[in-house]
């Protein structure tokens, strides 16, 4: 994800985004007065690739962060069985599979499956900044940003579920829900504006990479 290697800028930082939008960001409502999550569901930043019915599904991350400030949904159809897709999700223990030059130090995320990464246990590291908090084989992996980490201080409390849903024969839907409780104050208002779009850019790339890799694995198994 895009926030694997990014931290909130210090006051007075030189990021053009902050300079260009600082006045607008400061005019955002206080955290206690933020718009309801449902009001944002018409935006691609919150619903990319998903249907209204899919957004009504129960995700494991719903039980982790109550009264979340925001919920983001992403989805992609993968022409490969759930068993293969889940094996690729397990590889997030080693790499993020998004734009490697941004969030993996320029190292390419592995393009071959590593079976040792498929032995999951709650508490394992995933993409460096997350803990694995729940999973059901061939169904879902659920992560939470590490408590007390720089990522949590910057972005707030984040939980993410990667859910594999049914599709046509030898295909499935890979759905993701991210729930967030943003930090208090200006930092939280900044994250509420930036995180949905930043995450969309990075997670879209991640899901499309998983689609390509899983479909390649399936084709090679035929």
Give a quick precis of the structure.
By secondary structure, this protein is α+β, with helices and mostly antiparallel strands.
Description of the structure:
The protein starts with 15 loop residues before the first helix and ends with a helix. α4 packs across α7. The protein has one domain: START domain (Alpha-D-Glucose-1,6-Bisphosphate, Chain A, domain 4, 2-Layer Sandwich), CATH 3.30.530.20. Strands 1-6-5-4-3-2 form a six-stranded antiparallel sheet. A hairpin with a 5-residue loop joins β5 and β6. About 16% of the residues have low confidence. It is α+β, with helices and mostly antiparallel strands.
> What top-tier CATH class fits best?
Alpha Beta
Weakly predicted, low-confidence segments: 5-39
Briefly note the CATH topology name: Alpha-D-Glucose-1,6-Bisphosphate, Chain A, domain 4
CATH architectural grouping = 2-Layer Sandwich
User: How large is the radius of gyration?
Assistant: 17 Å
SS content category: alpha+beta
Outline the biggest β-sheet: 6 strands, antiparallel
CATH superfamily: START domain
